[in-house]
Design goal:
By secondary structure, the protein is an alpha/beta fold. It is built from eleven helices and eleven strands. The chain has one domain: TIM Barrel. Helix 10 packs across helix 11. The longest helix has 15 residues.
Length: 284
C-alpha cells in the first residue's frame, strides 16, 4: 500500500505534541507580532495562529484572562480550535487578586471559573497571580484559598499561586498552599521570588531567562538541564540545584504532572525554546 504524503495543511495543523511522562511544555499566549517572523509560517492569517501554536507546543498559558474574563463562547472556540490532548492553563483576572478583601470575592471567582469551564477537558491549571506592592493579610488570604473550588462541572481543578511579595513568601505560605493542595509557581527569574519547594501533586514552572541573541532562547546545555529537572519532578524527585525556602525532603514522592512555560524575557525566542525543550524530552 502506498504511503500518502502529508499535505501542507496537515503539516501545519496536525496533532499536538504528546506530553512525555506527564510533562507539558508551552508558551504564554499566542498573539505576538514578532512570532510572525520566526514562529508562524509566512502568510498564516492571525485567526489561525492558535491552531498552529497548539500543534507545536503541548500547553499554552492564557494571559488575556488576567486583564479580563472572556465570554464562554470565546473559550469554546479556543477549545475547538486546538487538537485532542492539548491543555490550556490560564491566569485569573487581576481584579480578583487586587480586591481589598479577598474573602469577599467568591462571586467573582465563581463567575470566572464558570465561564472558563467551557474549555472542558482542555482546562488545566488556573494561576492566581498577586503582584508585588499589594498588602496581603494572611487570614484574608487563607479565607480566599478556601473559596477556590476543587472541581467544576465534575472535573477536578488545579490551582497555582504566584505571590510576588517577598515579605509574604515564607515557610508559612508554603504550609498554607500544601494544606489546600495548591501549587506555587517556580519562577526562574531575578525579578520575582524564586523557589522550587513542592506544595502539590503537580509542578508549575515559568522560565523567564530566554536570550534574544540565541535562536533557541537558551543554550543547549541549559535546555538539557531543564529537561533533566522536568523528568526528575515528574518522577517524584526534586532538583538539588534550585533555590528553596525550606529543606528538601529526604525521599522522592509519587509521579507528578509537570507544566513548563517559557514566559517574558526575550519573548520572541520563547516558542523556539519550548519546541527545543520538547525535542530534548522526545516529544517531537
Amino acid at each position: 500500500m502506498a504511503v500518502r504524503k502529508k499535505t501542507a495543511t496537515q503539516e501545519l495543523f496536525g496533532p499536538a505534541p504528546a506530553p512525555i511522562d506527564g510533562i507539558r511544555v508551552g508558551i504564554g499566549g499566542w498573539t505576538y507580532a514578532p512570532w510572525r517572523d520566526n514562529f508562524y509560517p509566512k502568510g498564516l492569517v492571525q485567526r489561525r495562529e492558535l491552531e498552529f501554536a497548539s500543534r507545536h507546543v503541548s500547553s499554552i498559558e492564557i494571559n488575556g484572562t488576567y486583564y479580563g474574563a472572556q465570554k464562554p463562547a470565546t473559550y469554546a472556540r479556543w477549545r475547538d480550535e486546538t487538537p485532542a490532548g492539548f491543555v490550556f492553563s490560564a491566569k485569573a483576572p487581576k481584579r480578583i487578586m487586587g480586591s481589598r478583601v479577598l474573602a469577599q470575592t467568591g462571586g467573582a471567582v465563581d463567575d470566572f471559573l464558570g465561564g472558563i469551564a467551557e474549555l472542558g477537558h482542555k482546562l488545566g491549571p488556573i494561576v492566581w497571580q498577586f503582584e508585588r506592592g499589594g498588602t496581603l493579610d494572611r487570614v484574608d488570604f487563607a479565607a480566599f484559598l478556601a473559596l477556590l473550588p476543587g472541581a467544576i462541572d465534575g472535573r477536578a481543578l488545579r490551582h497555582v499561586l504566584d505571590v510576588r511579595d517577598p515579605a509574604f513568601v515564607d515557610a508559612g505560605y508554603l504550609t498554607l498552599a500544601r494544606a489546600h493542595g495548591m501549587a506555587t509557581v517556580f519562577t526562574d527569574s531575578t525579578e520575582h521570588p524564586s523557589f522550587a519547594d513542592i506544595t502539590a501533586d503537580f509542578v508549575y514552572a515559568r522560565l523567564m531567562r530566554s536570550r534574544s541573541d540565541i535562536a533557541s532562547g537558551y543554550p543547549e546545555s541549559e535546555l538539557q538541564r531543564w529537561a533533566e529537572r522536568a523528568r526528575l519532578w515528574a518522577a517524584g524527585g526534586e532538583p538539588d540545584d534550585l533555590p528553596r525556602l525550606t529543606p528538601a525532603p529526604a525521599r522522592g514522592g509519587n509521579h507528578r504532572d509537570v507544566f513548563v512555560y517559557f514566559i517574558s524575557s526575550a519573548k520572541e525566542r520563547n516558542p523556539a525554546a519550548a519546541v527545543a525543550l520538547l525535542r530534548k524530552l522526545g516529544a517531537v
